[in-house]
Amino acid sequence: MDALAGERMIRYDARGLVEVDDTVLKISEIDGEKAVFDAKDLSTRKINLELRWLLYERGVKDITVLNPGAKHSLGVGILTRCKITFDGSLGYFGCGVIDGPEIHVTGRVGWSACENMMSGVVVIDSNAGSLTGAAMRGGDLVVKGQVGARTGIDQKGGTIIVLGSAGSMTGFMLQRGRMILCGDVGPGLGDSMYDGTIYVGGKVKSLGIPASGPMRTRN
Question: What is the pTM of this model?
């Protein structure tokens, strides 16, 4: 039985895409409007179900998730004002399609964190992968470490702040919003950029070709 621990015990639908069991475990320790639960042995769906149960059925406003284990797609689709702390790292597509929450990730995140974020605040204490803040529409996203390539791709609003360096093609197809990049930036900055503003504190390896005419720079 030990060999069937974790993800191997999950039953999926015929396509292999959706976890069949939608039972909410209700394992959180709740104290008024605060709650905490350990996600070490939980699947992605179980973690997200627990979050939704706490927020929408129990009225909890401040949740701490212990040991998220770099699982993918955690904290997605949260459409209410609340505070969520992930005490650890997240995998791909974390905190996407959110509207209102304040989320703190004490570790790092993988690709496409905060994709299609509409409002709220997300603070990531370490590094973030490629495509961070893709198609972001509003809110504030702060990465205290480095970010990968194509950060802010197709950004439509909001503010992305990166305290470290950023990879190639950062700000690709930027349509609106702000990017504040405190470190160095790779090649192709602002390529196919329509509008918006990019601030860079370090060195830019090269600028991309903007879609709306010559790019203005200021020392």
Answer: 0.91
